[in-house]
Design goal:
Elements: H1 2-15, H2 72-80, H3 87-107, H4 117-128, H5 133-136, H6 160-179, H7 208-219, H8 226-245, H9 249-254, E1 260-264, E2 270-277, E3 283-287, H10 290-302, H11 330-349, H12 356-363, H13 367-380, H14 385-392, H15 405-418
Antiparallel strand pairs: 1-2, 2-3
Helix pairs in contact: 2-3, 3-6, 7-11, 8-10, 8-13, 11-12, 13-14
Length: 423
């Protein structure tokens, strides 16, 4: 028993904060299980053998099974284990699989592996308004820890976009379980919707006036003490990084300053670039403009670093206050932006009722809005759309483009000339 616990502890140290019980069955003496037939997170969920999926009506019969799972919970764990190195994806996929499993067993009284196409249609209606609220929705929409008795799988009804996202994820789950030989068929396959047309324009971004107000909020921060100055320069660097490079928050928290490098262009000029490992484990290089490198040097000097990074430097792109050389969490970065946009909204509100619409718009903003803002501003300032695409990493760079450095150089020149933060 001691050896088993030690092995579990060692595995936990490898995968970080992810509960070991979510991946592999744990000894009864060290797992805290919920009472059967109550709403609980996946790692603590308990269900009777009659509806645990071991005899599900959609279970594959015969053939070679590619996973060892004999029930629905273990099958979901096997699917989730593929995403352990992608925390954002893992959290999103676990949430949707968990919701469907709980609804299937507690609301419908059926195993997940017994669900039919008709059941899926009912579940889609449920997502629009999860009831009874006391069972499914967290009190006051709060986000409780997964171990808290007040935890619930929903914060409220899902928006249309969240419903579509749930369908995409669950279709991926069922398709994989069919391929793995666990299920006979995919109940979602009969109702796959056509891909929704791209919206004609992005609305979750800041126009020029609102963008100016956000920068004014940054510049209004106090900087008398060393700690205030560090707060100011860190926020200024973070905003610059998001806007100039159009990075996702996950790309900021997962990449390091060792990604900066210089390369000589065809005219003999040395130019800075930032190599980013982004969504889908795709590498791209983003122009690091002169403005950006000035902000980076100011931020690094404040922390006692040399002005510019060296190759393979492990310093995170953004550091906690105090200079502790560890990456910030995604939640921490989101909180920084939440405060920034709230302060900007307050400043606008204090100017009078005529500024209320702008204040309300900024108050809704999130960190990802800066990425949309960067893309919108680049496109509207006549940056070649191919360069915008490659800067934001919307599509992978083709093999041919890896040889066309002149195309990259032209992208750098245009980004440098036409896309400026203008503090």
């Amino acid at each position: 028993m001691a050896d088993s616990v030690a092995q579990l502890a060692a595995f936990l140290s490898i995968i970080g904060t992810l509960p070991v019980s979510l991946l592999y069955p744990m000894p009864d003496s060290i797992i805290v299980a919920a009472q059967p037939h109550t709403v609980a997170p996946l790692e603590m969920f308990s269900v009777s053998t009659q509806i645990d999926g071991s005899t599900g009506s959609n279970r594959a019969q015969g053939g070679v099974r590619q996973i060892q799972a004999d029930n629905d919970v273990d099958a979901i764990k096997a699917w989730l284990a593929r995403f352990l190195d992608k925390q954002t994806t893992f959290d999103s996929y676990r949430k949707e699989a968990e919701r469907l499993l709980l609804w299937s067993t507690l609301q419908l009284g059926k195993a997940l592996s017994s669900l039919t196409h008709e059941d899926w249609l009912v579940y889609q209606m449920f997502l629009r308004d999860p009831k009874p609220v006391s069972r499914w929705v967290a009190a006051e929409g709060r986000k409780y820890p997964r171990t808290h008795p007040g935890w619930r799988p929903f914060a409220g009804p899902l928006s249309a976009s969240s419903q579509r996202q749930a369908a995409v994820i669950l279709n991926t789950l069922f398709s994989w379980l069919v391929t793995a030989g666990y299920l006979a068929g995919n109940p979602l396959a009969l109702s796959r919707e056509r891909r929704r047309k791209t919206a004609p324009r992005v609305t979750r971004y800041l126009d020029d006036d609102m963008w100016h107000e956000v920068k004014m909020t940054v510049d209004a921060l106090p900087r008398e003490t060393p700690r205030e100055r560090e707060h100011y320069l860190r926020l200024r660097w973070l905003v610059s990084l998001c806007y100039v490079c159009g990075l996702r928050i996950s790309e900021i928290t997962n990449n390091t300053m060792g990604g900066f490098f210089r390369r000589r262009d065809r005219d003999g000029e040395e130019r800075w670039w930032l190599e980013v490992l982004g969504k889908g484990d795709k590498l791209r290089i983003v122009p690091a403009t002169d403005e950006l490198m000035v902000e980076l040097a100011r931020y690094r000097r404040e922390l006692g670093y040399q002005p510019f990074p060296v190759p393979n430097e492990s310093t995170p792109l953004l550091l906690p206050i105090g200079g502790n050389p560890r990456p910030m969490s995604r939640g921490g970065v989101h909180e920084i932006f939440k405060v920034l946009f709230a302060k900007t909204a307050d400043r606008l509100s204090n100017r009078g009722s005529e500024h209320a619409p702008a204040a309300a718009h900024v108050a809704q903003a999130s960190a990802h809005w800066l990425r949309h803002t960067a893309g919108s501003h680049m496109a509207n300032n006549d940056v070649d759309l191919r360069h915008v695409r490659d800067n934001l990493g919307h599509e992978s760079i083709s093999t041919t483009n890896t040889y066309l450095h002149s195309s990259d150089d032209a992208r750098h020149v245009q980004t440098e000339e036409k896309h400026r933060i203008r503090w």
